[in-house]
Design goal:
108 residues, mainly alpha, 4 helices
Length: 108
């Protein structure tokens, strides 16, 4: 059963990497984002095929189980991405306000 999951996950990861590279080619994703997502999907695939590698890394870092390590790192990444999105949305909101304010003052 694990082999089926590993195969399906790897197929999905390859699909995700191809999608990332297409977005990069269309200039919808920058170089940092491209590198991040390709490395993310490659590491995820490695951890799916060799789950004991997370245990070894977790033990080296002083964390009991590999699953806990994956969970902690995932939560940290999710919250960091959420923070960056929040900052970006706030910036876009300020830019829109400036444009609308300037446009309304110009039309008066």
């Amino acid at each position: 059963m694990l082999i089926l999951f590993q195969t399906l996950f790897t197929a999905f990861a390859l699909f995700a990497i191809v999608s990332v590279l297409k977005k990069k080619k269309e200039s919808l994703l920058g170089p940092k984002g491209t590198i991040f997502w390709v490395v993310f999907w490659l590491l995820a695939s490695i951890f799916v095929w060799w789950p004991e590698s997370t245990v070894k890394l977790a033990n080296y870092l002083g964390i009991g189980r590999g699953t806990d390590l994956v969970l902690y790192v995932s939560l940290a990444i999710i919250f960091f991405i959420l923070f960056r999105l929040h900052v970006k949305i706030e910036s876009i909101g300020r830019d829109i306000t400036k444009v609308v304010r300037k446009d309304s003052l110009d039309s008066v």
